[in-house]
Amino acid sequence: MRHCAILSFLVFLVARVACAQWIDERAGESDRPHPRHDRSIRTLAIPPPEDPLWPFPNINVIHSVPFYTPDQTEPSIAINPLDSLNIIIGANDDRSDTTLYAYATTDGGMSWSNLSLPPEKSFTVYATDPSVMFDRGGNPLFGTGHYRDNNQCSDVACYRSTDKGETWGRAGTPYSNTDFGNDTTTDKYYFAVDGSTSSPFKDRIYAVWVEYASTPGARIVCSFSDDDGYHWSKRIYLSDLGYFTAPVPATAPDGTLIVTFENYKFGQESILCVHSTDGGMSFTAPQVISRYSNLGAIEPIGDQNGYQILKNDLMVNSFPSIAIDGSGRHSGRTYVTWCGIDAGNRARVFMSTSNDGGKQWSTPRPVDCDSSELVSDKFFPWVAVDPITGDVGIAYNDSRLDPNNVLTDLFMSFSTDGGDSFTSHRISSMSCDPRQGQDIRSAGNLDFRFFGDYLGIAGRAGNWYPTWTDARVPGDLDVYTAAVQPFAPMPVANLIATDTTVNGVTTTLLKWDYKPETTFGFPLPDNYYFSITRDSVLVQTIPANGRTVTVYDTGSSGGHKFGVTVISGSMRSRTAWSDTRKGGVGRGTSFPQRSVLLVRSNQNGGAGCTLLLHGGETAKVSLSIYDEFGRVVAMPLSDEPVSSEQEVQIPLGSAGVRFYVLREESPGNVARVTVGKFIVESR
């Protein structure tokens, strides 16, 4: 049965009339100290609504808990090769220190389950570093690692699901150490599956990680499995002892395995790689892809294992990521990305490519398309290749929009020509301060804020899903994703619907502006058209017709909600709305701040929930409820004064986040708009 959970007592915002529509929305020598969480209760500030026509619906996949704001960091994402509506995200989730969480959707991101991995019974553990992927059979896999604080025991773990991520079980253990004094501890785990049908090692799973010896130094390690992750090979070392970290593996169509990682030793900072042509049995010696310059000052000063610090107290890194083209378009082309400082002392996202299995690499170049001279931070890039189209996507954090270089957004660079050229667009619909999390880490005598070490991105058949940690709600780091279609049409602009009469017949005049281009700025084909709905019912379609379009709906009796959607091939824009119904909300700003909206479950097994409006006076009320994509779930409307307390019944549907827009009008025609969210959970 499903039920509603109260998110919190709301901090209300007085919004513009434009808000009337919501969005279509170290252990030993280890490279990270253990987290220390700030568990103090914080007031949750409900952010103002984003632009309702933002072309990339932002989706919060986290089911929050009232009055407790656990952080989620380091998301990894994968799309099912047999069912593109099935997407898995894994992340560190402070709802549990001992296991990680998987978030799964089977409807393309409209609703998300939140499931912790099975708890470990052998010893109390701290879990970290998620890595998710799918095998060729459409079964998701989840790689991670655990360690115990008191004696540094650690292991590398693989989990598997056979029901699209709804339940998980422990598969096998690539490595386990039960006696730190005689062996090593581990960190920075990442996994990959060889999904190529032409590979002699198809279906082989690779796990790579950092292994810290009992004497100072670290090595990069690999193990592989040929039985769905249940049994694993002995450890294979990819490097000697050194200052190495952050390995990421990828496989080419011919079965070549390439692993990229970082050397962070002072004066030797570089992005490295090794490759194997025998399925991970042996590897070439590490070679330098590129040197890099640190993004920020190293703290503690003089500490070889220090951290790059931005914005005075934010931990970042220059870890690389890797992806290989398996589409056949640029078959086997390998892309490696990382962030560093260029010759002009500006943070950039760099990329280098290889066309020969990692033997030779192109000269690194920036791919963030940022020509501004303003100082901005860029960090945590992740690269992916669409296995169907061969297009390349790179997601990264970027503060280029804030002249004070504090607020950060998620950007995506996109290439359709094998990385020869890129276009870059902001994906996040709101900026955030990445220092808002509760995860505080100590280095020397200083404390720093932790925003994770990486993010993720996946794409398939022209549909892209970056995933990132977002702090748009102050004090709470949540995992977001976005539905990104670079070839989808942009929505229409300045839509106005006006009831009028023509020759004595009630008519609605619709007018809008349109520039025919896609969300990433590509020109639209000439055969695009406009789809017009009246109260969600299709009334007509209009072929491409210039940049300013005027339409008369003579079938309208007056007082309707109109939507205009641009359609180009199989791609649709977000829908622009205009409402001519009576009882609209005025523009006043002095309406008393007096309403509280609560959510409760219906009793006796009811398939819905109740919204309770408590107020100090009567008012006209309209309440709209939307899902995570901004689609209307319920729209109870009232144009007449209602009592100071009202109950509204709404259906629940699937689990996930719901947003509401509450519009109130006092008898004096003074208006107020309140926005917020609540959670529909499964039980």
Spans of 5+ residues with little confidence (pLDDT < 50)?
Answer: 1-49, 582-607, 636-644
The level 1 CATH classification of the largest domain is Mainly Beta
What can be said about the biggest beta sheet? 6 strands, antiparallel
Radius of gyration: 26 Å
Overall pLDDT: 81
Q: What is the CATH architecture assignment of the largest domain? A: 6 Propeller
Number of domains: 3
Number of helices: 0
**Could you please say which CATH topology of the largest domain applies here?**
Neuraminidase
Total beta-strand segments: 51
What general form does the structure show?
Answer: globular
Structural class category = mainly beta
Calculate the terminal CA-CA distance, rounded to whole Å: 5 Å
Fraction of residues in β-strands: over 45%
How would you explain this protein's 3D organization?
The protein has 683 residues and is mainly β. The chain folds into 3 domains: 55-482, Neuraminidase (6 Propeller), CATH 2.120.10.10; 493-572, Sandwich (Immunoglobulin-like); 596-682, Immunoglobulin-like. It has no helices and 51 strands. Strands 1, 46, 47, 48, 50 and 51 form a 6-stranded antiparallel beta sheet that branches. Strands 38, 39, 41, 42 and 43 form a 5-stranded antiparallel beta sheet that branches. It has a 4-stranded antiparallel beta sheet with strand order 3-35-34-33, with no helix packed on it. A hairpin with an 8-residue loop joins strand 10 and strand 11 (169-177). It is globular. The N and C termini lie close together (5 Å). Mean pLDDT is 81; it is low at 1-49, 582-607 and 636-644.
